[in-house]
Amino acid sequence: MSKLQKINNYRLLPVDQQEWLAQIADTHGFSFQQLRLLVQYSMDLVCWSKDGLAQFYRPSAAGHLKGKPAAAKIFQQLKDGYDALRTGLKSYPDHTRTGELAPASEIKFPKSQIMETDLKGAIMGKCPVASEKTRCCNLNTLDAVQQCGFGCSYCSIQSFYHGNQVRFVRDLALHLENLELDTDRPIHIGTGQSSDSLMWGNR
Predict the structure, then answer these.
(1) Same domain, 196 and 127
(2) Do strands 114-117 and 166-169 pair parallel, antiparallel, or not at all (unpaired)?
(3) 118/193 same-domain check
(4) Residue 161: pLDDT above 70?
(5) Statement to judge: residues 71 and 136 lie in one domain
(6) How far apart are CA 62 and CA 23, in angstroms?
(7) Residue 196 clears pLDDT 50, i.e. is over it
């Protein structure tokens, strides 16, 4: 598996952008961190309905440099182009006459990366930081999903789960029906810290 294939969201990019990134990765020998950022920049450009990073690519900018210095020069060139778009004046021509946004195209999460897994342990438990030594809100967590499809670089979820697979607990409805709850008192329930529950809706 190549470095790029290990990066979340790489496979969500248009095929032509995947191929272009693979080509320049092979040409310039970018580090994993540089490739991760290039994938992130590319995803942003897709979301902004802009052309890919190839529009900023000028290999002659490396001059006589080779190896890591050349890769750093080319990477900076691509980053500068991305930053110019990110910080530039914005235009939103797709507004309708009523002021509402026109429907945006949806990038679907690959079905091949979604799987079901058997429940291990209880479907609901206490917040991981709850203890007698903490001032706790008594949150109960329903961890029905593991791993997230967004691949945000700052999120700790990325360090817990690997393999680019999002795992859903099998027979979730049945597990929820079997929960024994005290109906005489309020219960604080969240969806845990193992995924982004808003991403999956009512799947």
Answers:
(1) yes
(2) parallel
(3) yes
(4) no
(5) no
(6) 17
(7) yes
The yes-or-no verdict on residue 123 having pLDDT over 90 is no
Residues with Cβ within 8 Å of residue 41, at least 6 apart in sequence: 53, 78, 79, 82
Neighbour-count burial of 88, counting CB atoms closer than 10 A to its CB (0-12 exposed, 13-18 middle, 19+ buried): exposed
Residue 117 sits in the same domain as residue 68: no
For residues 174 and 139, give the distance between their C-alpha atoms in angstroms, rounded to a whole number: 22
Residue 51 belongs to domain spanning: 4-87
Beta strands of the chain (E only): which ranges? 114-117, 124-126, 140-142, 145-146, 166-169, 189-190
Cβ atoms of 112 and 133 within 8 Å: the answer is no
Strands 140-142 and 124-126: antiparallel
User: Which of 2-6, 13-17, 132-136 is modeled with the greatest confidence?
Assistant: 13-17
Q: Is the pLDDT of residue 40 over 70?
A: yes
pLDDT of residue 183: 85
- Which of 24, 54, 87 is a domain's end point? 87
* Residue 119 counted as domain residue: yes
Decide if 19 is inside a domain: yes
CA–CA dist 138, 10 (Å, integer): 38
Does the global pTM surpass 0.70? no
Please indicate, yes or no, if residue 125 is contained in any of the structural domains. Answer: yes
DSSP state of 54: G
